[in-house]
TrEMBL record:
Residues passing through the membrane, by range: 22-45
Keywords (A to Z) from UniProt: Cell cycle, Cell division, Cell inner membrane, Cell membrane, Membrane, Transmembrane, Transmembrane helix
First-listed, main subcellular location of the protein, grouped into a coarse class: membrane
Protein name: Cell division protein FtsL
Entry's Gene Ontology cellular component terms: cell division site; plasma membrane
Keyword Transmembrane helix: yes
Amino acid sequence: MSMDEIRRWLDATPLLVLRQQISAPVLILFLLVLMSAVGVTYTAYLNRQAFHQLQTQLMEKNALQEEWGQLLLQHSTLTSHGRVETIARDQLNMDVPGQSRVLVVQP
């Protein structure tokens, strides 16, 4: 194929003919549609990122709630009256004072 034949073939190609006939409004509409498609794609990407972040934070919230429940249980166990009294007797050698050792103060 010679260069002249290639040029004739390219000149006869409908795409090149259409490209020469495209008007400014059509080109502007095409660019707007293209920008809209890019915007939709970018918004979908941001949505996926936000959803992933939400899932991560929900998992963290659940873990913190579980830890809070365990801490409440531990707190109630450590501060129960029976445990405090047992530690006071055994480790601190404390006892309940008798009636003769109790002094009532009135204002």
